[in-house]
Design goal:
The protein is built from five helices and no strands. By secondary structure, the protein is mostly helical. The protein has one domain. The two termini are 25 Å apart.
Length: 136
């Protein structure tokens, strides 16, 4: 199996999604992160990027990188990202020096949603009519 084929595999995306979830868990276990505060709301942007990447990996795990994505799968990606975001914030609640907030969960959901939406549009050409297309 060539590298390009391995990267497009659903199973590779699933393994990378689990690894990324472990990285997120490890980072949330830290009392503080070595990142400078550059602007207000930076933590929300960081959450959206981290969970957006998770959303991309989960999206790839449903369809692989070269396959069509369906509207129902986008909803599933959003639910998985939201669930893991809630789990992450619950975990952070018990970490000394960290706080949890629903705003962070909202940023997680927005990141996952945008990642899935971009993937949906890229694969179908138009996200608005993707749920009406016939499955092969």
């Amino acid at each position: 199996m060539g590298f390009a084929r391995l990267v497009r595999s659903r199973w590779t995306c699933r393994a990378l999604a689990v690894i990324w979830m472990l990285v997120i868990f490890w980072l949330s276990s830290k009392s503080s992160l070595p990142a400078p505060d550059l602007f207000a709301g930076q933590d929300k942007v960081e959450h959206a990027l981290a969970f957006g990447f998770l959303g991309l990996l989960i999206t790839g795990s449903f369809s692989g990188w070269g396959k069509r994505l369906y509207f129902g799968q986008v909803i599933m990606v959003i639910l998985i990202v939201a669930g893991y975001g809630l789990f992450d914030e619950g975990h952070q609640y018990f970490v000394p020096g960290r706080d949890s907030s629903l705003g962070d969960v909202g940023a997680d959901i927005v990141g996952g949603f945008l990642a899935a939406l971009v993937f949906l549009r890229r694969r179908t050409g138009d996200w608005r009519d993707s749920y009406t297309r016939e499955r092969p």
